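Hey L., structure's done. Input below.
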Amino acid sequence: MELDQLIEEAVADGSKEAALFHLLLDATLYVHAPKKHTGARLSLVQFKTPQGVMAIPVFTDLKKAEFAGRGNVRIVPLHARQLFSASLGANIVINPNDAWCILYPEEIRALLEGKTLGRKPEDIEAKEDLQLRPAQTPSAELIKLIEESLAPIETAQDAWLTEADDDERPSSTRYVLVVAAERPSYERIARSLTLAISNSGRSFEKTVDITFIEPGELQQAWLEDNSSCLIYRRLWLKASRTGVYGNA
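Output:
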């Protein structure tokens, strides 16, 4: 019950997440597996979240797992560290029928390495007349960090690093990363980059905001009109990655 209580508290108050994940890693969790067991490897059931993301449902107690399974699956108990390590690369949703939370692969890896997840990205309403321009002399470390954050996410196709005036700090600017990606991956991309910045131990002097465009006509228009700030393309071969800021 302590774990369930912490999950509810952490959903409402992000400052409780560190205590939650510390307790979670040493807990026994319950997963769904197909009723028919074939082969030596354990297969786990996945489902699509309301946001359109495929994930493994994980439960903090047996009754929750049984209720969700409705007799159609096998219930398998696993130690959290074992489960997270064996399923690394998948998304995990904890208690999907309650006050649930989702963990993305980058976050699961960080937890297994003993790192904190840091702050989560905040949603803000962008101004309709926001004027974007190519970022001036961004650091190679920031560009590399962005590339490494986007690379594991297959639906992240292109990215442009721009800047805009910072409304909260007169005479200052902020970075605005424009990413062409499919909508279900927006949250993962934002959280992955936020986590990478938090764990880098670096201050990049400017706030880094992220905005998204969907693949299609608008993406093509950005490719044609904003090549000067294009820093990432999934289509680029590693050996031929070049950009306006040098080797990206």
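The longest helix spans residues 186-200. The CA atoms of residues 37 and 243 lie 50 Å apart.

-- N.
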